[in-house]
C-alpha cells in the first residue's frame, strides 16, 4: 500500500500510517478491518466523530437541494451560519472560505489593508501553509525554503516583556493562537492574552486570534478567548479565524470580524469561489447546532477533566506535564519519545499524534464518553512502555 501511495501522491511522507476505510463515532477501521480508537479526530476536525447521523443528513439533504451558487448569490444556509457565528462569538460580520490557511490569508490582507507595516506573531506559532499564512508562522523550518515571503512579520518570544518592547503605533496586528496546537499544545503564559488585548488596543493595532484548532467547543468554551479571565472583561478580539471543527469534516473556514475590523476589506478586495457555499454552510450549521443541542462544549470540559484526572492518577514517570484545555490535550514526555509512543499506540489500536518530538497531542471527537476515556487511558498507559524501551 505504501508503494501505491508513493507512486500516486506527493508532498506528504511516503508512508501513511494506515489506509482507513470507515468510521463511526470515535472509532475508525482500516482496510483490513482493524479497529482504532480515534483520539485525533482528523486533527481536531471531526467534532461529532465519524459518520454522525446529523452530519450525514445535512450533507445528503443539502447536496440534493442546492450545493453551490457563487458569491453573486446568497443562500439561506450561508446567512444562517453567519448569524450563528455572530451569536456564538459576539462578532459583527463574517467572511467564509474553505480552510484554515485561507482564513489566515484573509486576516493577513486585513492587517495589510490598515496601511501599517508591521505584523507581530509568536515564535513556534502555526497559521497555515499558503504563502501569507506561512509568512506569519513562527516555525523557521517551514518558512525558510520559501523565502522571501511577505516582508514585515516579526516573531516574538511568548512573553509580555517581548510584546511590550515590540508594540508600537506602526503595528497593524498581533496574531496569535490561544493555545499553540501544532507546537504540541503549548499554553500561553497566564495573563498574556489579556495583556495582549490591552496593548494592541492602546496602540490601535488589531488583535487577530487564530482559533482554527481551539474553536468550536474544543477547549470547553465555544471559543478559547471566552474562558473566564482570558480577555479583560467587556473586551473582544478584532478578528477570529475559524476552520477545522466548525465543519465537522466538511472543508470550511471563516473569519469573524468584531466592530470596525469588518470594514477594512472593501468589496472587491478579497473573495473565493467556494466560500460560504450552501453545502459547506448547511453542514457547519448542522454540526454547530448539534454541538449546542447535545452540550458538547460541556462534554469537552467534562471529558477533558476525566482525561487529565486519569493522567494525573497514572503519575507516569515519562510524563512531564499535561497542557491545553478541554479536549485539546498536550502530554509532555521526558525525552524525544513521542513518535515511538504514537506508533506503539497505533499498534495497540489507539490514534494519538506526536505534535512535537517530546509532546503527544490529543484532540478526540467532542462526543466521547467515560468508556472512551477509560479505554484511552488503558491503551495509552501500554503505549508509554515505548518510552522505557527507547530510553533504556
Ligand atoms: C490547522 C491550522 C491552520 C491551518 O488550517 P488548514 O485548514 O490546514 O489550512 C492554521 N492555524 C492553526 C492554529 C491550525 O491548527
UniProtKB/TrEMBL annotation:
Keywords: Amino-acid biosynthesis, Aminotransferase, Pyridoxal phosphate, Transferase. The keyword Aminoacyl-tRNA synthetase does not apply. Gene3D superfamilies: Aspartate Aminotransferase, domain 1, Type I PLP-dependent aspartate aminotransferase-like (Major domain). One of its GO terms (molecular function) is pyridoxal phosphate binding. GO terms for biological process: L-arginine biosynthetic process. It comes from the Bacteria. The keyword Amino-acid biosynthesis applies. Its cofactor is pyridoxal 5'-phosphate. Pfam families: Aminotran_3 (PF00202). Signal peptide: none annotated. Belongs to the class-III pyridoxal-phosphate-dependent aminotransferase family. This is Acetylornithine aminotransferase. It comes from Pseudolysinimonas yzui. The gene is argD.
Amino acid at each position: 500500500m505504501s508503494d501505491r501511495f508513493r507512486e500516486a501522491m506527493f508532498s506528504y511522507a511516503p508512508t501513511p500510517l494506515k489506509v482507513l476505510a470507515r468510521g463511526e463515532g470515535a472509532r475508525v477501521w482500516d482496510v483490513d478491518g482493524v479497529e482504532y480508537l480515534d483520539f485525533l479526530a482528523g486533527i481536531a476536525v471531526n467534532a461529532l466523530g465519524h459518520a454522525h447521523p446529523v452530519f450525514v443528513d445535512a450533507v445528503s439533504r443539502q447536496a440534493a437541494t442546492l450545493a453551490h451558487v457563487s458569491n453573486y448569490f446568497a443562500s439561506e444556509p450561508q446567512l444562517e451560519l453567519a448569524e450563528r457565528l455572530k451569536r456564538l462569538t459576539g462578532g459583527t460580520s463574517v467572511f467564509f472560505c474553505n480552510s484554515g490557511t485561507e482564513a489566515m490569508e484573509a486576516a493577513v490582507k486585513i492587517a495589510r489593508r490598515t496601511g501599517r507595516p508591521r505584523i507581530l506573531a509568536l515564535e513556534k506559532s502555526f497559521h497555515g501553509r499558503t504563502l501569507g499564512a506561512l509568512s506569519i508562522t513562527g516555525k523557521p523550518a517551514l518558512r525558510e525554503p520559501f523565502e522571501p515571503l511577505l516582508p514585515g512579520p516579526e516573531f516574538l518570544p511568548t512573553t509580555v516583556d517581548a510584546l511590550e518592547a515590540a508594540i508600537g503605533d506602526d503595528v497593524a496586528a498581533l496574531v496569535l493562537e490561544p493555545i499553540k496546537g501544532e507546537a504540541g499544545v503549548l499554553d500561553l503564559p497566564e495573563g498574556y492574552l489579556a495583556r495582549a488585548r490591552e496593548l494592541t488596543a492602546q496602540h490601535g493595532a488589531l488583535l487577530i486570534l487564530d482559533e482554527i484548532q481551539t474553536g468550536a467547543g474544543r477547549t470547553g468554551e465555544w471559543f478559547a478567548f471566552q474562558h473566564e479571565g482570558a480577555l479583560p472583561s467587556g473586551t473582544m478580539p478584532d478578528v477570529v479565524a475559524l476552520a477545522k471543527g466548525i465543519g465537522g469534516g466538511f472543508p470550511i473556514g471563516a473569519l469573524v470580524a468584531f466592530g470596525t475590523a469588518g470594514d477594512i476589506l472593501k468589496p472587491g478586495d478579497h473573495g473565493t469561489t467556494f466560500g460560504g457555499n450552501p453545502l459547506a454552510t448547511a453542514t457547519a450549521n448542522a454540526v454547530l447546532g448539534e454541538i449546542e443541542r447535545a452540550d458538547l462544549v460541556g462534554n469537552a470540559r467534562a471529558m477533558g477533566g476525566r482525561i487529565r484526572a486519569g493522567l494525573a492518577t497514572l503519575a507516569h514517570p515519562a510524563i512531564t506535564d499535561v497542557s491545553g484545555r478541554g479536549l485539546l490535550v498536550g502530554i509532555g514526555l521526558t525525552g524525544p519519545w513521542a513518535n515511538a509512543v504514537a506508533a506503539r499506540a497505533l499498534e495497540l489500536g489507539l490514534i494519538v499524534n506526536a505534535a512535537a518530538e517530546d509532546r503527544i497531542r490529543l484532540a478526540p471527537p467532542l462526543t466521547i464518553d467515560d468508556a472512551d476515556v477509560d479505554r484511552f487511558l488503558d491503551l495509552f498507559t501500554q503505549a508509554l512502555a515505548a518510552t522505557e524501551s527507547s530510553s533504556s
